[in-house]
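Notebook p. 47: complex prediction with S-adenosylmethionine.
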Amino acid sequence: MSAPTGPAAVRASAAIIVAAVLDEGRSLDDLLAVESDEGSARGLKRSLCYGTLRWHVRLAAVLNALATRSPDQLAPRLRALLEIGLFQLVSGETAAHAAVAETVNAAKVLGFEQAAGFVNAILRRFQREQADILHAIDRDVALRTAHPRWFVDALRKDRGEAALAALDANNAHPPLWVRVNSMRGDVAWAKGELEAAGFTVTPHPLARDALQVAPPADVRSLPGFMDGRVSVQDAAAQLAIELLDPQEGDRILDACAAPGGKTCHVLERTNGNAEVTALDVSEPRLLRIRENLERLGLQARMVAADVENVRGWWDGRPYDRVLLDVPCSATGVIRRHPDIKVLRRARDIPTLARKQSNLLAAAWEVVKPGGRLLYTSCSVLAAENERVVAAFLARTPGARDLTPELTHGWPPRPAGAGPGYQVLPGETGMDGFYYACLGKPL
Ligand SMILES: C[S@@+](CC[C@H](N)C(=O)[O-])C[C@H]1O[C@@H](n2cnc3c(N)ncnc32)[C@H](O)[C@@H]1O
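Predicted complex, structure tokens below:
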């Protein structure tokens, strides 16, 4: 049975989802994955959920300025619905009178009949006082850009002036990037096919297989997706291959492989002629690798194991190349997953950094002398990136940071930035991503 599709019902359903993220810490992707709407109801619900969570920190400040009692005392779904109504008024994507009326109706759908007048009064007061309220709130960067304060402070400390552009980029709608399967065609040919289908297509200056496709569309509608000629992958993730530089005949370990985007890229680049092991600790996530390999007609050895338990999974034969795409705060992909702003806590970062450091030490053991390990993360925080790698280099005799020589010709990084190469969100249209290519002595 499909879900009710009227505008109030869609808002009510979006409020239930937003409240589940805000109050239960659930993932937006997981919640949306089980929704059955189609067409415009699906589009509206997703845009309300993404937009409200993207702007939650700012909307919560607005609500605080408007409400006569603390918003924390409101029922979670009512509070989420108010933020949805405010989001619509601020974004201007819907006529204001419709946004107010349908939010009031949605309160009734959710069983808050008695709060209908309160919802109406809050939204109408915001309409009258919007300019003054936003002017006062937006003096604070964390509120203006709708990020948690701990994150804004950490990013400014780590990235200086560049932090502001990154915070703004996190609130932009993310572009669609595809990876052209170099085994089945070249970038020029794929560009022509996509343009013939009506898309505007832009290559990336450094990621050789990457094309930005506008406007973003359902991936299944892209020419070449169903038969594996193109895959969806941000250009920042694709850039990893340029540093790993896998060769045909190499023995390669993808140590944190699921869902397999980079495993598949490695195989495409080596014409399927590399001996690739795709390892991941999560068995259910290994299934995602299998699906991706099957769609592309590629093969890898799949292993369910904890990288840190090297004796448990390694056969003793070293690898020419190791890719270690660590679990991280995902603060580089906030524009794609705005719920990260809500779900990630300051206290998570030291725990993640310890894990990343242990994974790096374990993965290093299996690199061949003269081989290389590429450490990557989709974090923008130095604690998970430069500091993990700098500590590793300091305690590991002979380990060398090859990144400066390999990124020669890439846009320069700030002086004294530390080992590796950090991309911040929005740079050349990319997600935030970090790379450190480490060489093992012969
Ligand atoms: C950032 S994701 C990898 C994304 C993947 N490289 C890609 O491009 O599609 C990190 C992965 O690390 C896995 N992981 C976390 N801890 C691990 C461990 N101790 N050993 C192996 N895999 C681990 C997670 O299950 C998750 O799939």
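Notes: The first helix runs from residue 7 to 24. The domain at 237-439 is CATH 3.40.50.150 (Rossmann fold).
Next step: compare against the earlier run before touching the bench.
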